[in-house]
Task: inverse folding
């Protein structure tokens, strides 16, 4: 077995991997070593779209070059890519729809939440063309949620959320190409229908279908989720919290929230606050909620809840022997957590009817039953505390301090301390003056096939050394948090220009400096990254595609990264992926997406101004991103 130091950079995770091995418990890191990757699947050339197959295209022109139906390698790979993007999109659209539905229940008096983001509500309503005049908060929220629901129902026109959030220049491009989505459900169904055997067999057309899916993901998934969550729970503001497994407390009832939709995690945090006395009755000093993955991000950003760990090591909080329960909703939840939990007293609690794990406890969570369900979940965690086996308890003690909560509103507010009239000006001036070279968003996850956190951290260190401003979301932000890059202390890794700007803005706000990477939220909050880019582009009077900006997911694992990435490419932003996107088997798909062959007739770069960069080495990848940022600077007339 490889040394645990080669599996994760996080010493707490290493310690828990040793403990798991000693106790004979298998984790994702072990399974990744055992499971060899299929060469056909890895390149996207395996098709399972009908019962004549599965068919697979042999590499290098040797062996079968078409499926039984006659589909060639380009069609098969493009169709599989569209399939992956559609899965990612469906996840985000369903997330957004759940929140829209919840708001309708809230304003009808059927669900126990109150609308907390009144400013955001007014801003979104106005963007949607709704007047706030003479309407109370609930009435206005109902109208906004109705507009959201139209994006799952209407049969003509364009997504309301695209009209709300897209830059006009981008919209023109998509309109010309006939790519504008009508409603999320319609487009997802159409995408499945075109992937079916005997459906769309034109690889270029399939890739354009993937772009439409990307737009659904971006607008009816990411943007709608963020906007509605800010309306329901408030827009995040800067907050200080802690990272790593050391946030689990031996003397407390520990309960982790894991998954994505904050309807659940918010309520669990609320009920944990209300049931402290019950925890004391069983001998604990209180209840400690800790975050995992994006549920962790949501309650970190809005409530300052500490984060225990990120995706690849999600089984390891259980291995501490001190986790009473892990409550989950949807996306990125390894079924393996149940197998690991069965070796301890930890109870895995699933909450959504369409997302269960065999062997886990299921407590049905809906907006209507939010209080009842959250109370039951917290009480279950408390009841498990006396079942702990003290001989199995071993909690790594390191924690790292970090700042999060950098919504666009918060970033603008921080800049306002420097220039009250034109808050974006200091940032734009720093970019124009070269103190800041450009900006990169680090997004995505960690992946047990890669040394955890390593590439996220290495890529960011290389970027900030070269004065590239970094913003981060998702589990990749957790990687940065664990290694000091979400704290002003990380400014030591920055080049001089970037360090001076971040220090000046931080000091204008009473801090020693801003962190070198600004944590903007969960995966759906990549919408905030897009909003920031649109705001900057509009301020400068250029298109988003002209900005010296890019995105990067060095350690991703989920199809959602492909749908988010496709959305950003469609907006004209280059996207780096550090993990095989399972599409390299088709020269056509590679050329369209990566634009690495000069004179290839159609590329996403030519159509939209953004392309895919696939590079597994993080330092090389940073170099490629910096090169491209410099090209875009040059085109803007900047040095
Ligand atoms: Fe094979 Fe064509 Fe069926 Fe795919 S759709 S499995 S390539 S016959
Ligand atoms: Fe996520």
Result:
């Amino acid at each position: 077995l490889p040394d645990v130091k080669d599996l994760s950079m996080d010493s707490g995770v290493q310690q828990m991997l040793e403990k798991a091995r000693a106790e004979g418990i298998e984790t994702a890191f072990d399974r990744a070593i055992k499971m060899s990757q299929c060469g056909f699947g890895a390149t996207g050339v395996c098709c399972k779209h009908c019962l004549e197959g599965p068919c697979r295209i042999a590499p290098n022109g040797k062996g079968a070059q078409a499926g039984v139906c006659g589909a060639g390698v380009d069609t098969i790979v493009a169709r599989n890519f569209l399939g992956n993007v559609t899965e990612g999109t469906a996840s985000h659209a369903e997330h957004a729809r759940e929140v829209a539905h919840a708001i309708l229940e809230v304003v009808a008096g059927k669900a126990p939440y109150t609308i907390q983001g009144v400013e955001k509500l007014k801003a979104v309503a106005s963007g949607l063309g709704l007047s706030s005049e003479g309407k109370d908060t609930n009435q206005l929220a109902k109208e906004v949620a109705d507009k959201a629901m139209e994006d799952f129902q209407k049969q003509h026109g364009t997504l309301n959320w695209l009209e709300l959030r897209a830059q006009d220049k981008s919209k023109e491009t998509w309109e010309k190409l006939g790519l504008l989505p009508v409603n999320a459900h319609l487009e997802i169904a159409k995408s499945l229908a075109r992937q079916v055997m005997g459906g769309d067999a034109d690889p270029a057309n399939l890739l354009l279908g993937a772009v439409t899916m990307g737009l659904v993901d971006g607008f009816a998934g990411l943007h709608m989720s963020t906007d509605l969550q800010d309306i329901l729970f408030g827009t995040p503001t800067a907050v200080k919290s802690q990272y790593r497994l050391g946030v689990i407390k031996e003397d407390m009832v520990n309960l982790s929230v894991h998954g994505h939709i904050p309807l659940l995690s918010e309520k669990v945090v609320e009920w944990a606050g209300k049931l402290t006395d019950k925890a004391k009755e069983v001998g604990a000093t209180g209840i400690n909620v800790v975050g995992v993955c994006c549920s962790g991000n949501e309650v970190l950003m809005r409530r300052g809840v500490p984060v225990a760990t990120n995706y690849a090591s999600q089984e390891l909080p259980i291995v501490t022997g001190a986790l009473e329960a892990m409550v989950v909703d949807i996306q990125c939840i390894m079924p393996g957590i149940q197998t690991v939990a069965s070796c301890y007293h930890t109870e895995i609690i699933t909450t959504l009817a369409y997302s269960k794990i065999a062997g886990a406890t299921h407590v049905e969570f809906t907006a209507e039953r939010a209080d009842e369900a959250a109370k039951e979940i917290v009480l279950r965690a408390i009841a498990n505390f006396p079942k702990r086996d003290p001989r199995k308890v071993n909690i790594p003690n390191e924690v790292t301090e970090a700042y999060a909560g950098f919504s666009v509103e918060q970033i603008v507010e921080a800049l306002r301390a420097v220039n009250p009239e034109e808050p974006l000006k200091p940032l734009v001036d720093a970019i124009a003056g070269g103190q800041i070279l450009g900006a990169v968003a680090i997004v995505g996850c960690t992946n047990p096939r890669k040394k955890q956190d390593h590439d996220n951290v290495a890529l960011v260190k290389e970027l900030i050394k070269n004065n590239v401003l970094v913003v981060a979301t998702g589990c990749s932000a957790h990687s940065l948090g664990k290694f000091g890059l979400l704290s002003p202390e990380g400014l030591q890794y920055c080049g001089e220009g970037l360090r001076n700007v971040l220090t000046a803005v931080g000091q204008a706000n009473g801090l020693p400096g801003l962190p070198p990477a600004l944590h903007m939220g969960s995966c759906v909050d990549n919408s905030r990254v897009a909003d920031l880019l649109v705001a900057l582009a509009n301020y400068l009077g250029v298109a988003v595609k002209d900005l010296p900006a890019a995105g990067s997911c060095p350690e991703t694992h989920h199809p959602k990264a492909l749908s988010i990435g496709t959305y950003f490419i469609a907006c004209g932003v280059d996207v780096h992926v550090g993990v095989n996107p399972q599409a390299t088997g088709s020269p056509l798909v590679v050329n369209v997406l990566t634009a690495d062959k000069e004179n290839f007739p159609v590329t996403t770069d030519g159509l939209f101004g953004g392309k895919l960069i696939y590079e597994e080495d993080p330092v090389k990848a940073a170099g490629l991103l910096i090169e491209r940022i410099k090209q875009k600077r040059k085109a803007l007339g900047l040095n």
